[in-house]
Amino acid sequence: MSLILIVLVGSGIAISTIGVFAFKWWSERHRYRCLENLPSPQGRHWFFGHGRQILASVKEKKYFKLLFDWAKELGPIYVYWISNTPIIILSDPKLMENTLIDGVKQGAWVRTPSGQKAWNDAVGPILLGQNGTEWQWRRKAWNPEFTSSALSNHLDLVKQSCLQVIETIKQIPQTKTVKADPLFVELTMRVISGLLFGVPVDKNDSSPTNLPLLEIDRTYEAMSVITYRYLRIATGEKMWLKYLPIRASQEYWQARRYLEQFLAPRIDLALQIRDNSDRDWSEVSSLFKESMLVRIATKNTKYNRASLISESIQLLIAGTDTTAHSLSFALAELSLNRHIYEKAQNIVDRTWEKYNGINADSLRELNYISAIFKGVQSKTVAGMPMCLHIGIPTPAILDGIVW
Ligand code: HEM
């Protein structure tokens, strides 16, 4: 008798648990019904959605290739599903920019908790992992640094970095094929490190005094370890795995330590300059004193050592691959379109001669080059995954990835 009772009670509990899950599942599915009208990749599983395809692509390091292939097939806006959660992919640069700037600013879009957690766990809380006021104060601090007038003060640094890459190309024997992408990675990393952290372009110059030199290959390797872990966390890997003695976590800590060791001495110096502004800092190079790091640290006392380290690693990661690979794609397109290449070359040569190099005025005359770059981006940008949450408390949730 008591056995029958146990079976009956057990079945009752099991049925009601299943009922609760089924109801939750059904109401989520119902909630996003309107998104069913957007184009969506084939092969959606009734329970996993496209989850298994996404996980497989992350494992094979082909996630963005998959997004890109789907965008070619489905257009600039489509949706894929992780179980019942819709992930909207935008691959139109203007649409992406407007959504990020207006959508996040007005609070209509916010980032998903999973994407946020993954970004913030890369090192510490960063711009890319924030919403609302936490996002706004960071964004407000960085915005003035990235205006065209602020950036045009640093064109010399861009010129020096380009000249150094040209020197490298000249040293490669003519019989050897020049691999463009590593050159663009080096160029981009030197420009970003110069602008952000005051790292001199000259490979052997360690000023201001005894700061670690920028080692392109090791830095790039460390960045890719952090980025790949971000992708795995965003698609379901548990964050605590980093505390287990497994190879992936050892690589993660090694990469993180390496980047921190490169950045921390610069951040310490920037904070010393901020806290002792009356001291004579003439022994420190003007490149460093005018770097974004010193300006941000000085202007914004909300930033401390730890948050400047994580924000700096984010900027290095967010800026390098995006810019370098965009340049590689642009070069590939130009090599396939000879007449556009020749026209671009004529315009650049003419402008260079007229202004004796690059400056703010010469850039204004290079609309043709901007148009080429924009065209290439429209063709090649893999997409910005975002996730819509319709309903309260916010009408939409955005989960973006930079490259
Ligand atoms: C062609 C080059 C670039 C492309 C295609 C690109 C693309 C993007 C995209 C699509 C986003 C939105 C991602 C999201 O919201 O999750 C983004 C955000 C961001 N990018 Fe870039 N990016 C480029 C260059 C750079 C550079 C050079 C830097 C800095 C050195 C940078 C730093 C950032 C940061 C900090 C964010 C987060 C902005 C925010 O949350 O307000 N990016 N980028």
Structure description:
The protein has 403 residues and is mainly alpha-helical. Helix content is 63%, strand content 4%. Among the domains are: 1-31; 141-383, Orthogonal Bundle (Cytochrome p450). Strands 1-2-3 form a 3-stranded antiparallel β-sheet. The chain is globular, with a radius of gyration of 25 Å. Bound molecules: protoporphyrin IX containing FE. Protoporphyrin IX containing FE binds at residues 96, 100, 127-128, 139, 192, 314-315, 318-319, 322-323, 326, 384, 400-402.
Offer a few descriptive terms.
403 residues; mainly alpha; Cytochrome p450; disordered C terminus; binds protoporphyrin IX containing FE
Brief sketch in words of this structure:
The chain is mainly alpha-helical and 403 residues long. 63% of the residues lie in helices and 4% in strands.
Overall number of strands: 3
Low-confidence stretches: 387-403
- Report the CATH C-level class of one domain: Mainly Alpha
**Helix tally?**
17
Strand order of the largest sheet: 1-2-3
By secondary-structure content and strand pairing, the structural class works out as mainly alpha
Tell me about the biggest sheet? 3 strands, antiparallel
CATH superfamily descriptor of one domain: Cytochrome P450
- Following the backbone from N to C, one meets helices and strands in this order, namely HHHEEHHHHHHHHHHHHHHE
Distance between the termini: 64 Å
Helix fraction, binned, reads 55-70%
State the CATH topology of one domain. Cytochrome p450
The distinct ligands, each listed once, are: protoporphyrin IX containing FE
CATH architecture of one domain: Orthogonal Bundle
Nearest-integer average pLDDT: 86
